[in-house]
Write a sequence for this structure.
């Protein structure tokens, strides 16, 4: 188990979660409102999903579309409520107007998480300087993953960056796992896996009927099969 590539799937509800686990997902990212690119789900939704599956769940901490933190007090409260409900892993990431990491917001939220593991999400793909962002976050407790396409436009444009960052594994700021998502297709996988990338994230690719339809276990299984080849 430990050396196989991680497959993370976006789940909006318990039905999605059950299908994703059945298809071979290792972990779920829990969000609501994909029209706004994924916001924090309710505690009730988290509880229903936690009841339905036994794989790890990473819960989005985001209250508005875009990459600004918005109301940090609301974020902190939501994080506290979710932790009280049993959430142990999270997803977050905020930039200031200049494209630098919003360290005030990130550090305040991370303090509330008290060592829980978390992913810095695709805000890195909009950062003014990816390397500087990684180094500025390197000492924050719990940060073990970057969700990234390598470029704001998606994986097609980002592959050279992803491959270059994977080659720096172990350097300061490059210890977290690279979790590739954002316009990711099955035909991208051979090059990414060859570069040593060992985690992928899918949303729409797990939903043949689009975001209005549920996660399809067979669609997830196709990704699992290619990753395990």
């Amino acid at each position: 188990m430990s050396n196989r590539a991680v497959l993370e799937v976006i789940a909006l509800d318990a039905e999605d979660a059950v299908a994703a686990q059945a298809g071979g997902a290792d972990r779920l990212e829990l969000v609501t409102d994909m029209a706004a690119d994924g916001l924090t789900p309710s505690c009730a939704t988290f509880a229903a999903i936690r009841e339905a599956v036994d794989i790890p769940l990473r819960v989005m901490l985001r209250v508005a579309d875009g990459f600004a933190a918005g109301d940090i007090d609301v974020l902190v409260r939501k994080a506290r409520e979710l932790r009280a409900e049993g959430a142990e892993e999270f997803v977050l990431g905020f930039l200031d107007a200049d494209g630098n990491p919003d360290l005030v917001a990130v550090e305040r939220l991370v303090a509330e998480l008290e060592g829980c593991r978390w992913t810095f999400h695709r805000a890195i793909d909009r950062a003014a300087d990816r390397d500087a962002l990684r180094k500025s976050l390197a000492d924050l407790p719990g940060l073990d993953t970057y969700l990234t396409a390598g470029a704001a436009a998606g994986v097609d444009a980002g592959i050279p960056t992803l491959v270059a960052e994977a080659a720096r594994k172990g350097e300061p700021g490059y210890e977290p796992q690279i979790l590739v998502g954002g316009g990711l297709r099955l035909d991208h996988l051979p090059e990414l896996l060859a570069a040593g990338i060992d985690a992928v994230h899918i949303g729409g690719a797990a939903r043949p009927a689009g975001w209005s339809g549920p996660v399809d276990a067979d669609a997830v299984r196709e990704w699992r099969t290619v990753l395990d080849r």
